[in-house]
Amino acid sequence: MDSQPAFGGCEPLTLDVSRKQMNEKAIRNRLVEHGEKLFRAPKQLIRFTGNKKADLLLNDLKKHPHAFVLACLMDRQIKAERAWLIPYLISQKIRGFSMKRLSALSAEDVRRLMSKPEPLHRFVDKMAVNFYRAIKRIANAYNNNAALIWLDKPSSAEVVYRFLEFDGVGPKIASMAANILARDFKIPFADYYSIDISADVHIRRVFGRLGLCATDATVEQVIYKARALYPDFPGMMDLPCWEIGRNWCKSREPECSVCYMNDLCPTAKLNENG
User: CA 19 → CA 16, 88, 90, 208, distances in Å?
Assistant: First the structure.
């Protein structure tokens, strides 16, 4: 009798799995390569908003580290540039942004500053509460110095945990904050294991189109896939994927031909052939 492949002919399936794993590894390597370039690049002014004065405030971790923390808290369900502008807009209203000046504000003061003459956020009431409570937490838990959240080379898990202690902060924002501190501000951590990818709409779309996850994968699936691909620093792939999604891999009419992942991307190949 002719010999038969074990389990009723699984060789083709095994080869398909092997090819998929090889392509995933190639995709991972390229994303990590781009992530490492960003991580190792010299520190420069981070352009959070496009408003120079606002960006200078957010970059001032020596005198105003709380501006960065408070901006992170605002980055929910509105455009990032608009969210990160909020601390500066409030500083203009109260003529400064020292912790002394912020600590003098009541909860009602913060709500008024956030809502009048025009709302600064889509969810003014909730964000005003989170903003006010964050000021109190920085004052009480960190002696008015938000930089204590990340000083003295803490573990990445500790930094993420400290951000999670703020009202309104979930794993996505906590990982985003830790990643920006490590990658852009060049703050040294003891390790980077606990900095996850921040699976926003751009990153989920890119992971799906690259074939790393199903196109309808959940946030948790994307996070754990990134951990599986690069456990030493899952968040290393965050900014490369976000930039791909923002610049080329758009929800409609993706510009596959100019994306540096197009030779490895199964969706780009389908678009090219279709």
Answer: 5, 50, 53, 17
Per-residue pLDDT tens, the chain, 274 aa: give them. 444 444 444 455 454 666 777 889 999 999 999 999 999 999 999 999 999 999 999 999 999 999 999 999 999 889 999 999 999 999 999 999 999 999 999 999 999 999 999 999 999 999 999 999 999 999 999 999 999 999 999 999 999 999 999 999 999 999 999 999 999 999 999 999 999 999 999 999 999 999 999 999 999 999 999 999 999 999 999 999 999 999 999 999 999 999 999 999 999 988 876 5
According to the 3-state scheme, what is the secondary structure of the chain? CCCCCHHHHCHHHHHHHHHHHHHHHHHHHHHHHHHHHHHHCCCCCCCCCCCHHHHHHHHCCCCCHHHHHHHHHHCCCCCHHHHHHHHHHHHHHHCCCCHHHHHCCCHHHHHHHHHCCCCCCCCHHHHHHHHHHHHHHHHHHCCCCHHHHCCCCCCHHHHHHHHHCCCCCCHHHHHHHHHHHHHCCCCCCCCCCCCCCCCCHHHHHHHHHCCCCCCCCCHHHHHHHHHHHCCCCHHHHHHHHHHHHHHCCCCCCCCHHHCCCCCCCHHHHHHHHC
List the Cα angle 266/271/14 in 5-degree steps. 25
- Among the listed residues 241, 203, 223, 245, the one whose alpha carbon sits nearest the alpha carbon of residue 160: 223
